[in-house]
Amino acid sequence: MTKIILVNTISDLSVIPKNLLDENDTKIFSFNLDVHTELKSKKIEHKIADDILTLDERLKIFDNLKEFQSWHSQLNTNEYDLEGINLLKILDRNEFLSYILPNLIALKIIIKIIEKENPTEIIGTNEFSKIIKSIIKNKNIKTKFFQNKIKKELLWDNITAKYNLGGIPLTFSISRKNYLKLKNTFETLSGFFYNFWFKFNNSKKGIILFLEFNPELFSNLFEKMKNYDGDVVLLNQRRSAISTKKSLEVIKKSNCKILKLNSILNKDEKSHISSLTEHYSNKINNLWNNSDIFNNIFEFEGYSFWDSIKDVLIKTYSERLFFYISLILTVKKIIDNIDIKCIVSLNQSGETEKTILEINKKKFPTILLEHGFIERVSETKRFDILSEHTSFNDKIVVWGEPKKIWLINEYDVDPSRILVTGSPRHDDYFSSRLKNKNSHEKTLLLAPNPINEINGQSGTNLKLQFNQTIKKTLEIIKKFDNVKVIVKLHPIQLQHNEEIKLLIKNLDSSIPIYLWTSVIDTINSVDTVLVLTPEIHATPTMLLESMILGKPTMNVFFDKTIPEYDHIKNNAVFTVTNNDDLEINLKKFLFDNNFQNILQKNADNFVNQFMSNPGTASKKLASILKSY
Question: According to the model, what pLDDT value does residue 331 have?
Fold first, then answer.
């Protein structure tokens, strides 16, 4: 007789009776780092469930995402279309996939555990109950599930606000609904004082429409667009275009206008939204009741996982349907009534971008702007399914010739659709480079790149290795004379970021941790930059930005084989693995001046090859946009 207990989250341990955890004939499997740490601290014998899957198996699961991200297209009906766009399609792609993938991985792990252990009884909580029932429905296995009342949510159900008070990072979460209310109030009050609203009903000029841009990051571009013979308009539904003092200054200085979505529809038009919401809500609720359809769509290796994801998806669409209908009607009115010369976007997967690009239907020209440092080799090509460039159907703006060549050779993209401008967001970096100081005290910037659920690599052992490397790095630095550490976290909203922050605070509360401080100012304040890259495909933008600013840069990679990216082949970044001797490598990196000089020279050569128009990319892009 074999019992197994599957513990998914730390809160599961508060609902699964302790006497069951202490039974000798029971095997316990932990599914995340917190659970493993807690069980280990209590000396409760257990196995790490993540060990069941190899990296190759995880990557094969990741490869299935392409099939699931377009699940709505398998319905073969336009019954859920409004103004030609499927309401079920609007949900942010990354938000959807970052929820789906952990469920797929859990499904595969549990399948393998059951096959190997052949249990007579499975114990867990309601979090895994539906996955387990799907797997054992034709097997004679007892189950016992305890109620965990903590609800699952999607990535953007709550918005994390991040601020720095000196070197102290402050964060707090707020519901999506309340965030949008606060954003609207803040923008309304600010607009009253600064008069930056785009006057929709009095628009007579052509406009260039920027979707979800942060003006602070693209200040040079908007300054170069100041003399455009038309209006430069920003549409920001997620993050406000005036969320910081600097972004507001950019708006004022460049004479950009902000398009306020909730002011477009008149009172009569808004009055129809509630009835439309009720109409489509009834249709979609009837659809959810057809389990056969969804069991077929959300099937993996012969097992349906629909029951394990449906509650969250149904809740999400129910809560957001009014917003989606409002967004569609508003965008339709904008597209029909404004002379848009060009639409500029950073992606086509967000709710705002999807809606506008779908309703536009190629009526107005569109441009997709590259906005992150990504190098690829054949081994990491699979991750291009998360890239926007491989599927975008209009003009694509890239940072340099290497990306253009990759898109042409690997995806047969028409060369005439690819515009090489350089990176407008990095013009300020080239003009902000300072001469390196030779001070007695050295400052190291530690930049840990968080693990993202959407990539399929997040697991207990990877996080353990990551945490151990952070701990080891800080211990080594303390051995060196006159070296201090500061930390810069990635601004992305991920749980792992919060875990990293807590870890560093617990290891050494005196270390400054920065969230939203200027990347340029932060890098310029240090002597060297150390990046930690736990994901096998990742090339963090911090690597490139440190190279541009002339800082010797080191990258710790968490795999035995380091991909042969150009920046690695050119020795532009000192790249080691987490299994190499970290102390020896850090000593060489921090104190060998000749080695640092070689790194900087190689980095300068790489940047010149990788990026076109260094420092003048905004001027190049602005000239293209003004030609529309």
Answer: 96
Name the percent of the chain lying above pLDDT 90: 82
Task: Give yes or no for a contact between 445 and 522, defined as CB atoms under 8 angstroms apart.
Answer: yes
Please state, in angstroms and rounded to a whole number, the distance separating the CA atoms of residues 100 and 103.
5
The per-residue DSSP string of 520-557 comes to HHHHHT-SEEEEEE-STT---HHHHHHHHTT--EEEEE
- Cα gap 577→519, rounded to integer Å: 25
Sign of CA dihedral 279, 284, 289, 293: positive
Residue 359 burial by CB count (10 A; 0-12/13-18/19+): exposed, middle or buried? buried
Q: Which of 446, 442, 396, 440 is nearest to 420 (CA)?
A: 396
Q: Residue 464 has what pLDDT?
A: 96
Contact 340, 209 (CB under 8 A): yes
- Concatenated DSSP letters of 333-358: HHHHHS-EEEEEES-SSSHHHHHHHH
Quick check: helix, strand or coil at residue 315? helix
Instruction: Encode pLDDT of 246-300 as tens digits.
Output: 898 999 999 999 999 989 999 999 999 999 999 999 999 999 999 999 999 999 9
Backbone phi, psi, residue 354, to 5°: -55, -50
Summarised one tens digit per residue, pLDDT across range 308-343 is: 999 999 999 999 999 999 999 999 999 999 999 999
| Helix (H) or strand (E) run with residue 292 in it | helix 291-297
Nearest to 321 by CA among 130, 510, 82: 82
